[in-house]
Amino acid sequence: MKPVLLAEDDDFYADLIQHVLDQEGAPLQRVSSVREALDAMQATVPALLIVSSRLPVPDGFALVRAAGEHPGQSHTPILLLADPEDEDDLQNAVQAEVDDLLLKPIVPVELTFRVRRLLAATATS
Length: 125
Known about the structure:
This protein is of the alpha/beta class. The chain has helices at residues 11-24, 34-43, 60-69, 87-96, 108-124, and strands spanning 4-7, 28-31, 48-52, 78-82, 100-103.
């Protein structure tokens, strides 16, 4: 099974997501920057890309754009983690045309549902 690539620089959320994916039996590769994520995508195409909009410069939206332009990545589903308090985040999320959006704080059962749905869609395509 291809790994899920998580680009999240907040250890609290990264640990929470890792716990949920461990419960699902989904392998996870954690990175904390856009550069690390792009390097990881050079090595392998992930089954799912989970991206925090709040990554340090460049932000998570830069990673979403780069993933769409990256060879072999155009069919990788993207789950964007966004801050509901930030209007710019929400507007950018709409414009980014990601496959799904999850607002922080993350509710584990909601994350589980969304990851299952996105991975199932990937498996059938």
